[in-house]
Amino acid sequence: MSIIGLSPEVESLKTRLKKIWMAGDYDRFSRYMEGGAREFYERLQVAPGCRLLDVGCGSGQLALMAAKDGLEVTGVDIASNWLERARARAQAEGVQARFEEADAEALPFEDASFDTVVSLIGAMFAPRPDLVAKELLRVCVPGGTIAMGNWTPQGFIGQMFKTVSKFIAPSGMPSPVLWGDETTVRERLGRGLSDLYLVRRHYTFSYPFPPSEVVELFRLYYGPTNQAFASIDVDGQERLRRELEALWSSHNRAGTDCTTVQAEYLEVIGLRA
Fold this sequence. Notes:
Blueprint: H1 8-22, H2 26-30, H3 34-44, E1 51-55, H4 61-68, E2 72-77, H5 80-92, E3 98-101, E4 114-120, H6 129-138, E5 140-151, H7 156-168, H8 182-189, E6 193-207, H9 211-221, H10 223-230, H11 234-251, E7 259-272
Parallel strand pairs: 1-2, 1-4, 2-3, 4-5
Antiparallel strand pairs: 5-7, 6-7
């Protein structure tokens, strides 16, 4: 997807990001994250019939939960293959939801189109956060809800990104985990909101296999990790694997045959002014 008026540098950056996120198999990867997504969604307490936009919807995880509750749901993402999977899931599960390829920095909707605008670990990865904030605010009705879940710099996933980003982080964009910093979120969203609630919570990653297999799961199916491994030689891959296994093992709260890790994120709930 292309946005009119982009500089060649930004266009190239977006093309690279899209390639990263389309790699692997996010639908298979995200099935292990259903529990945390459910907890985040249920805290929103969105009323049936509301118009909900899920920005960075992936393969439809949260959007489908909302659709089953009777909401009028639209999901957007830059990864067209994820959207195909989301549409297939909606059909298989017998729910109505619309999924469109779109950029969080230039949402293809009229002003005040949605009662609730949500992004769970999604819009935080767009390269120009000021534009993302502007768009989230623009498409939300006055008095509506804007909700985000963003990994924190200090949390487990923030630490994992430090390891992986050495291999794939595109230059020219701020760190995505700044969306998990309270001061930064207030600067980006605060002026467009009448109320803003920020709470640090934990997302539970739980797998019925050891950390070494978790790292392999990420390598195969999670786009950024998949592309990080693909970008380096065999020796580099082995070093990266060892670093990631050590990180997962040091945070593992389960036994040697299973993996349970608590990953901190910042829950952002704002009321549109």
